[in-house]
Amino acid sequence: MADREPVVGVAGSERLTLPAVGAVDVADPAACRGLVDSVVEEHGRIDILVNNAGLQHLSPMVEFPDERWDYLLSVMVDGPFHLTKAVLPGMMARGWGRIVNIGSIHSLVASPNKVAYVTAKHALLGLTRATALEAGGAGITCNLVAPAYVRTPLVEGQIAQQARLLGIEEDAVVDTVMLQQSAVRRLVEPSEVAAYVRYLCSPAGASITGAVQVIDGGWTAR
Length: 222
Fold this sequence. Notes:
By secondary structure, the protein is α/β, with parallel strands linked by helices. Helices cover about 45% and strands about 15% of the residues. The protein is built from 7 helices and 7 strands; from the N terminus they run E-E-E-H-E-H-E-H-E-H-H-H-H-E. The protein has helices at about 30-45, 65-95, 115-135, 155, 160-165, 170-180, 190-200, and strands at about 10, 15-20, 20-25, 50, 95-100, 140-145, 210-215. Helix 2 (about 65-95) packs parallel to helix 3 (about 115-135) and helix 5 packs across helix 6 (about 170-180). The N and C termini lie far apart (about 40 Å).
């Protein structure tokens, strides 16, 4: 365990502002390295990395814009790779580290009209498992949290798009699309995801690595 309070580096979306280092574009490898360098310079080290960058684009595959495909993959796959690569040497030198990738139920299953998002979240699971195997001997764990639809602006912003693509009313999207497969028929709260991340970074999570921590209301029980 670290000998003082862990220093947390969290990489988020293009709209996230980090107090000490400002905003960072995780689609830019140099910016990822610069973020890590800035946090280490400010705080001395990084013990915990949470990769939480995400965005969505809804479109049938045959109409999916190439540039959106490239951007979604760069944010949700390349960004976590470059950030993880940058923090690992310090974690390995200290013999302790926690990496949590925020995936999605779409790391395990697919949905139509989300080809880039589904592909990226599946790839993030592969990155998680590979990292866990390479870093486990150095006292570092790496896990993926896979929630179903979470009550966030990203999800709320999809309602109108889903309604248009599927030809249904917006009021019907949550029940007939987002919660159709769930036994617990409500959106996941952000606090539930945060609590799971905190657990994985606590002493109780020391033997959990390379795992998918599902918060899906029973979606994958079917």
